Amino acid sequence: MIATLTVPILAACNKGSGADDKTERVLRIATQYYGEEDEYFRQQFTEIFEYNNPNIKIEIVSAMNPDQYRYGGRPEGEKREDPNEKMKEIINGPNPPDVILMNYDQLPDLISGNMLKQLDTDITKDKFDLSDVVPAVIDGIKSLGDGKLFALAPTFSSQVLLYNKKPFDDAGVQYPKDGMTWDEMFDLARRVSKGEGENRVYGFSFNQYSYGSKENLFYEMGTYSAPLQLRMFSDNAEKMTVDSDGWEKVWNTMIQLSKEKIFPEPVDYSKMDAVRRAAMDSGEYNPFQNNTFMNGKLAMTIGQQYSINELIRANKSAASIKGYTPIDWDIVTMPTHPEAKDVGGNVYLNGLMGINAKAQNPADAWKFIKFINGEDWARLKSKSVNQLVSRAKYIQPREGMQYNIKAFYSLKPVPMENEMSKLYRQYQNIGQVNSMGMQYFKKAIEGTSTVREALKEWQTAGDAALKQMKENPDAPINVMPGGGKTMAIPMG
């Protein structure tokens, strides 16, 4: 009788333990938008695991209903839901999920709320080797957990400095190198910029499709200023903070480079359309004629994995692309600031996952995260050309080529501003306070106002906008010069 009773008791214990047995178990994964029937999510993360573990059933729990506003916008007067708060409701609910799939900006809030299990103990116990995980991923995650790991991410994307060797060869200037500061890179850009009009070669652009408009530069220079962690407004969104020496230096730098024609100049789009039509009529249309880097008129730009892939494909197909000349190129790390030597560019962590501190099945949750972040999964997913796996061993140049692939993962991501993220979720129109700054930047770049005067004006108008936003969070902000309403332009 004792022996008979012992067997089911052990089986019951093992069912919740996640041990490698054949008992049926459920692993619940919480996501922000992916639903139970989301094909992409299952293909990307769960199908291989389910195939290897047929006794573990995956349930996907979505914090937000992806079809909620599919057939119509949010009804007037309905309060906007905060995805992060909805996620926390699920995490702390009566049937808590085991694994949490989150965005990078959610991680600090979940850590500070003690909602994630620290992974270091499991990592040590299982001797799970993370020495090959790139700094862009591992250091970025640790920086939000006071040196501890509360999540892991199997893939990531980042930025590099992409350059065309020809302008440097023509000018007798050395190529860019890893570890440059922004000032060093801008100096190189000045030395290779030459020519006039249609024959000009520009030194640098934040976007290879950018044509030097003041609006583009205002938003794109965020890549330059973000590592400096300059804020537009205070933690509680009560006051603007742009009337400062830091912002003045950033604007002066951008405006000076624009005046020196280091950045591409504005283009007459009416003429561009005429040139495009004529090229198409003659059968000599170049699909890259609007891409300042691909058409050879730009020495350096910011590149991503997809732009590198496009460049490789174009060079391979150059013989069939009329008007296109193959580009001899390479990449280096993003420029950095002396104040943040190892921080550069935007890094997006894809598939960032942690274990719920209240997980019902923590053992299988760790088994899943360990599998998705392990070598076998990395080796398989490294075949994809549009994502980078987090393990350096499997990040290799494409097709046996030789280029500086380490540039993608040698720097840390820009530190996450938890309070700022909360404000952007809390106030739907706060982006307009940023957008209105473009009007004052335009005055400074056109010389109708000094940089500091323009920043002071933005500070004053922004204070009024924040006050209005606090009093009526859902109403459009209306404090622009002339009394017009600002446009809600999304943050880049």
TrEMBL record:
Top-level taxon: Bacteria
Organism listed in the record: Paenibacillus hemerocallicola
Family matches, as PANTHER family: ARABINOSE-BINDING PROTEIN-RELATED, DIACETYLCHITOBIOSE BINDING PROTEIN DASA
Coiled-coil regions listed in the entry: none
Pfam families per UniProt: SBP_bac_1 (PF01547)
Gene3D superfamilies: Periplasmic binding protein-like II (3.40.190.10)
Full protein name: Extracellular solute-binding protein
